[in-house]
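User: My collaborator and I are trying to settle a disagreement about how two of our proteins should look. Neither of us wants to argue from intuition anymore, so we agreed to look at predicted structures for both before our next call. Could you fold the first one, then the second, and keep them clearly separated?

Assistant: That sounds like a sensible way to settle it. I'll keep them separate. The first protein:
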Amino acid sequence: QVQLAESGGGLVQAGGSLRLSCVTSGLSFSMYVMGWFRQAPGKERLFVASISRGGTITYYDDSVKGRFTISRDNAKNTVNLQMNSLKPADTAVYHCAASTRVPLGSRSSQDYSTPSQYDHWGQGTQVTVSS
């Protein structure tokens, strides 16, 4: 059974940092593109960042570029999201997701950022940024 378990969320003041982690099991981790998405109350789920299978290609939403960094450890079946300079607008539930549907070798940002491309999702971790 595939499981994705996020951790690291919490309450932080604006300008602060958090590091989210997503530990996976039940899948061949290195075969999956990994992504982070977020969903605020009453809003749709939005793309945050994604990373290729080998970790050499990353994509970020414009709203987080320069502040967030996605990384992965294929030996530990883990993907991380380092979030710096947090803003109240970053408040949301953050979900990690795993995709086999992104074509191998794709460099299309749309492939990496579309929720429907992802096969498996975690339950999410709450991030709240106070002003």
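The second protein, kept apart from the first:
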Amino acid sequence: QVQLVESGGGLVQPGGSLRLSCATSGFTLDYSTIGWFRQAPGKEREGVSCISSSDGNTHYAVSVKGRFTISRDNTKNTVYLQMNSLKPEDTAVYYCAAVLGDTTPQAMCVHSLGAYWGQGTQVTVSS
């Protein structure tokens, strides 16, 4: 059974940092693409960052480039999203998603591709 469980969300002041984790199980992380998405109230879901677990290629949304870093640890079946220099507009529920097989990170992020989704974790950036 495929499962993705996000953790690490919370309340942080503008300029602060958070690291989200996506613990995966039930499939081989080595041959999949994992993405982080977010959705704020009243807004469409946005692909934040995606990573290919096979070759490490990544894609970032323009809004987070230079501030967020996606990484994965295949030995721990976990994908991380390090978020620095957080802004109030980063406030949203963050979800991780997985596509099994060979999908490019850009395609996954741009087209919100995801066969499996986690339950989400709230990130609030506020003073």
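Some points you might bring to the call about the second protein. Residues 87 and 108 are 24 Å apart (CA to CA). The longest helix spans residues 105-110.
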